[in-house]
Amino acid sequence: MTKRRLAAGIGAFLLLIVTAQGAGANTSDKPKPNGRVLIISLPEITWSDLTQRDAPTIRGILDQGAVGGLTTRTITRATALTEGYLTVGAGTKAIGTGLTPILLASKGAGLEVGEKFGTGTAADAYEQRTGQSARQPIVYLGIAAAIAAQQEETYDAKIGALGDALKRAGYNSAAIGNADRTPSKSAAPEYERSLVTALMDSHGQLGGGEVGSELIEANAKAPFGLQINIDTAVSAFDDAWKPRSVVLVEGSDLARVDAYRNVVSPKQTLAITRAALRRTDAMVKKMMTKVNLERDTVIIFSPSPPSTTIPLGVAGMAGPGIDAGLLRSATTRRDGFVQLVDIAPTVLTQLGIKIPETMNGKAFTVAQTDMDANARRDFLIDSDQASQFRDSMITPVAIVFIIMIALLVVGAIISLNRPNRNQLRNLLHFGSLFTLGFVSAVYLARLFSFHQTSKFFYWLFVVAVAAIIGTISLAFYRRRANDDMLIALGLIVVIIGIDIITGGNLQFNNAFGYSPTVGARFSGIGNIGFSAISASTVIFVGFLVNRLGNERKFSRGVIIAWMILAAVLIIDVAPMFGGDVGGIIAMVPAFGLTAILLLGGRVQLRMRTVVIGALVTIGALTIMAAIDLTQPKGERTHLGQLIERVQNEGLGSFSDVVLRKLNKNIATFTGSVWVWMLPIVLGFLIYLALQARPQLRAITARTPELRASFIGFAVLAILGYGFNDSGVIVPGMMLGILGAVIIAQLALTASSSGLEETLNPESEPLRR
């Protein structure tokens, strides 16, 4: 409780900018008369699976509507089927922890009330677990566990929010599907009817449909010997497809295929997937004879990824007023990409029903209507392949970067103990420049489609570009000292800065960026990008002021440095560019402190200084939030959306967000390879402070302005870690850049003669 109050207190500043704007979606509160929505669920299906041969009907619906790549991530990336449906029903990310597949708390136990369950019926079991009578034909026996799971993990998902909203508006809800893997009469039936959770109300009850054993039939050639009875499913659909209704139809055979893939060969997996998809398409074809796309809406989606990989799922929507194009939503702010949490708001928007305040998802909108159907499909398949390529490279790239820093550290320690080894010093100097160039090279690699070639060519490009940057930087150093750092660090700042201004395409699907399958960010600047550009900038300006001269208080170098700090800050935090909330909190005090020190000011660590820094940061955060709120709801960043939540739900929602991010932050200590960067670089810095203090002093004697940069860097790294849910990844990247810079400087001052010269420089020390 203390943590919650503290987090709520930190969030009090939000009240300064909360305006009287209305909550919810931009829809009318009046339901559309006789509106209907058909939701087609294709478990574990990707865009590559939907060939014209196997799914002509489904492809036809998607081709005439708007489509997108669906991020199926809920709380974790490996979303289970139950979590996917729970998320759809809540309109916000839901957790499935605690919903075990055993009989007493079956995660997929959505049963018809008259079905036998244990020694009684499903209705009896439901009443035993909830204390309520089963008043509707279908009940979900895991409702109590589902609600408890959200509360125990501080997730604010309201289970059944979509079903409640539809019921209040007078709409009928129905689900048709059965993905059981055993006959219901078996000794230990294994239920998989999670689709019920997408449309059930908050009591775990659903008004109609068919999920019982009558919906499946035996087929010895099908996975688990079971398949959907298409005629029964179509008949159930005909009964449910009434005016003012929402019907969810699941391709349940597809769910059984995925559960079966671990016991069959890859070739056979493809064969049974295609067979299940053809049967699902045949079922949809019969149902579509009762659907009129001039007045009915059809939504197609994948509720969960395959169990072996985590690709983008399928999302599509066709119906009245929906142009053919790419889907997007305010949760992604990127054309062609939407999330599971957006489905419930989309259903309600199509029916003209107000979106509940508890839903964090946003309704689908349509963009890029100038692309034809084949171009849209090719784009989504290519994006999925690029995303999976990125996800496969993120850890290897990080490991290579960490190993390079570790090798530089070892070499630097050897060099410090053997100062006359000039070849080693030269190698360390170039290696440091190569390592800084590696960061730029990883971003530049996104200019090319390496996911369509091979990892060999990717690595060849990255190494070659890093070597070129290192060589060019070294050539500039030979012309004038410190120009090597200006080139190597400046390229990182320029490449990331221009990329963010132009849409963040180099961040997207980048090993040092983000991907839609991870689903944490789709636009703006990622946390690794923030780390790289902010750390590079704060060190770069120190070298720049030294290069341009710092003879007087407001010298040209100081003024230009201030302008660069301000420009990078705006690029990182402005809602129309980076939209980085954590960046504001870290960069404002760090950059401000650096600017003051470069001017020659003195800053003492006192409570007054901390308070002033906090107030300035809050002021900057308030300004950015106010700017964000002037944007259309569909374009607002995390900050604007958070303020909307505080408007709707109070400061308690803010404290929940803070606690969740804190938990993610702490989890990175055990779940990220970046944690190794901390002992490597911090241990090296401690070694320098204890064993090589003269060489360490020589660095700031040679370039006095670096004192300001190093102090600003310390503030940046500490606050960057504390206010980003990426945790150790943020200081990990920052320390990697700092380590490369320091080792390069040590290499230039390692000899005894060079050390003597740098400890008695002609240049004036930094003003105080």
From TrEMBL:
Coiled-coil annotated spans: none
Keywords noted in UniProt: Membrane, Transmembrane, Transmembrane helix
Signal peptide: none
Keyword flag Transport: no
Stretches that traverse the bilayer: 393-414, 426-444, 456-477, 486-504, 524-545, 557-577, 583-603, 610-627, 666-690, 706-723, 729-748
Official protein name in the record: Unannotated protein
Organism: freshwater metagenome
